[in-house]
Amino acid sequence: MAAQETARRRPSQRSHHHPQPRSRGRPVCAVNAKATGRGSYSWNRPTQGGCRVSGTLIVVDGPTAVGKTTACALLAAGLRRLELEVVMAGEPSASPIGDVLRHEPMGRHDGQILACLSAGDRYRQLNHVVTPALERGAVVVYDSYLPSAFALHELAGAAPDFLRTLNRDALVPDLTVALLADSSICQARAAVRGDQPHPAAAFIAQHAVYDAVLYELYESGWTLRSQPADGTPEEVAAALLQAVMQLL
């Protein structure tokens, strides 16, 4: 594998390094504790009766206000034009738990509460939406998954070990595309869409933690690809579609 033959680097926009997709049937290895300093973790692949399911789980992730939701909608539309069955999911969901996550004010030290609510919302979608879709061979496009959740919850005070244990039964996507843009771009986009104002330092901190989380997941065996998100939504979606079609 090309990524094994060269020095490992974090999948960031600065390096423009794109880890090559791993074999879909390859087992997930434990996180390299020395590389990350966050402990050793393992992850689950989607299976049915002990066999790999026929569907494909695609995650579009990234820091706050990078453009994930728009990219997911355009990607799903592109896949449907190719006559593929596409199921969309994302976090937070439209469930009552998701409503709490969207509207309940959380303080800086509510990381554990936030993480538990988020995990419940996530497992509900995985069990009732994602897994059935994968079992029938659909492509699932998932808006915001573990990388962004881990970064936000760590910043809210949750310990990495707690987060990994809470999500140990979460599925590993076939491909996770991390949309990346400068923190100042994300801050400006958040202001345009009417988000609660946050200082520039908050966006910078989130990007730093997010980059560390990506590196950890890459080291643990996740198939990750970074995609610059400073272009138009259509340009970003076209790059996403190309990456997904290489996998399919």
Automatic annotation (TrEMBL):
One of its GO terms (molecular function) is dTMP kinase activity. Residues 61-198 form the Thymidylate kinase-like domain. Keywords: ATP-binding, Kinase, Nucleotide-binding, Transferase. It comes from the Bacteria. Residues 1-28 are annotated as: Disordered. The keyword Iron does not apply. This is Thymidylate kinase. It comes from Kribbella albertanoniae. The lineage of its organism: Bacteria, Bacillati, Actinomycetota, Actinomycetes, Propionibacteriales.
